[in-house]
Amino acid sequence: MVAGPVLLLDGAPAVTPTVIERSVVEWSCAVPAGATAQLMIGDEPLEPFLRPGDALWRWRWQAPAAAGTYPICLTITAATQVTEWHGIVQVAPSLLDARRYAALLADLAELAPALAHALSGGRHPAGSGDAGQPDRAALLALLTGPLTQRLIAAVERLAHKPPQRRRQWEGPRELGALRERPDPSRWRLASDAAPLPPAGWPDRVWVQASRPDPRERSRHVAAQLLDRLITSGQALLVTPLPAEARTRLGMVIGRLRAMRAQLDVTIQPPIGVSVWRPRSRDERIVAAYRRLVQRRLGVGWEPALLAIPVREVARLYEAWCAARVAFALLSLDDWQVREQALLSGQTAQLTAQQPLLVLAHAAGATVALRYQPRYTPDSQPFRSLDDRVRVPDVSIEITHPRRAPGLIVLDAKYRSEEGALPASAIDEGYSYLAGIGRHDGSRAVTALALLFPGAGTPVSYASGLTALPLLPGEQVDGLTAWLRDGILNAII
């Protein structure tokens, strides 16, 4: 009988292990005689090494360069029993921006339900929570409670089931290249087929073969649900939590990640997932939990946004700035939402393919918020005035029935020198003022804000450029006031 394994990190019990990114550590575990052990961190199996006369199995591991939570799986195999232990290891950032990174993630988590509430017409927080945010205590209880454990067990059984199969047409293929002659009821003639003498069989056919169904509904629904739970759990981890609760939540997230990897399905759901009808007991468990999540978890960001590693905090800052600009626009009076691409179901997202928001004013003006738009020399109604492609982080395109279209540009510069925007960033900002115009060659940018992680008040220049410090906290009010003034000046 294999006893419960005790995993050690550098000789100490790995209860809540934390490792600095890129550092090298040693894992170890006492393994009974005759048994073998395997340690996996993430998707990487580690190579063990043994010392003569020592019952400890040891593994050296270099932490990755990306901070985050990584699942651990220790498997001990004896003659009559296999024992598994699951946990997580936190890879802590070695960068000085770790605290700022956590603050940006926490504010993004707050923004998702606030944006959904504002898009539904709300201007003030809903109920007793902040801007419609779900109850964190209830969310923590759900993720670490028995219902989630039941869901994980059901998804594990679904992942181990043979995938559904469907008959698919494959071809055209050479009939002579087939290993065995197909059933004539399972093939059809290719359009360019020719008869083969002397039997007259066609030389090229389409064959109907049984293949795993790539659009299997139950796996896609389970994958979407796990993505949602992982995102919600990550957002909860950056909030203040008791140490024991944080450990439990981290272990649950690790198991959810492991289950998500076992499902092995693409992110894009197949057609018909929304009308999926569960058949088996495990599918009914997934469906019931899915309904519970839709009532309790509120809105969360797409998983890719919250998975940005800390070494790319500049990219996270750009995304956070775009979300903050969207929320500031939604708080403006006298503007109504005409179109939006921020919210898809219960997932908040930032897309560059279409405007995030289109707002309309009673006077006939409209504003369209775009994330990372591309202004090329031949784009309309705004274009690059030279042979370069201009891609600001955020733009607000303003149209008015009695005025030429205008543009407000906001660009995130994750740089500061003693709390101020460096001169090199200001020089780069002027390329947007002078380089983006209308189809007739006239300049279109009426206001430009360079957003940077600093403190103090905005500094505006006569050229139309503003250096605007922006970080989570009270400074976001300065962004709203600047946007209000810029839009008013463009439509009056």
Structural overview:
The protein is α+β, with helices and mostly antiparallel strands and 492 residues long. Among the domains are: 7-92, Immunoglobulins (Immunoglobulin-like, Sandwich); 165-212, no CATH class; 311-491, no CATH class. The protein contains ten helices and 28 strands. An eight-stranded mixed β-sheet has the order 17-20-21-23-24-26-28-27, with helices on both faces. A hairpin with a 4-residue loop joins strand 13 and strand 14. The longest helix is centred in the first third of the chain and has 22 residues, at 98-119. The protein is globular.
Strand order of the largest sheet: 17-20-21-23-24-26-28-27
Strand content: 25-35%
Label the structural class: alpha+beta
The helix fraction, in percent, is 25-40%
Low-confidence stretches: 124-133, 269-274
For the sheet with most strands, the description reads:
8 strands, mixed
Salient structural properties:
28 strands; globular; alpha+beta; single chain; eight-stranded mixed β-sheet; 492 residues; 10 helices; five-stranded antiparallel β-sheet; Immunoglobulin-like
Helix and strand topology:
Layout lengths: L6 E3 L2 E2 L4 E3 L3 E7 L5 E6 L2 E2 L2 E3 L5 E7 L5 E10 L4 E11 L5 H22 L16 H9 L1 H15 L4 E10 L12 E3 L5 E2 L4 E2 L1 E9 L4 H21 L5 H21 L17 H16 L3 E2 L1 H4 L6 H18 L4 E6 L2 E2 L2 E2 L8 E5 L4 E6 L10 E3 L9 E7 L2 E10 L10 H13 E3 L6 E8 L6 E2 L4 E5 L6 H16 L1
In short:
The chain is an alpha+beta fold and 492 residues long. The chain has helices at residues 98-119, 136-144, 146-160, 217-237, 243-263, 281-296, 303-306, 313-330, 423-435, 476-491; strands spanning 7-9, 12-13, 18-20, 24-30, 36-41, 44-45, 48-50, 56-62, 68-77, 82-92, 165-174, 187-189, 195-196, 201-202, 204-212, 300-301, 335-340, 343-344, 347-348, 357-361, 366-371, 382-384, 394-400, 403-412, 436-438, 445-452, 459-460, 465-469. Residues 124-133 and 269-274 have low confidence and may be disordered.
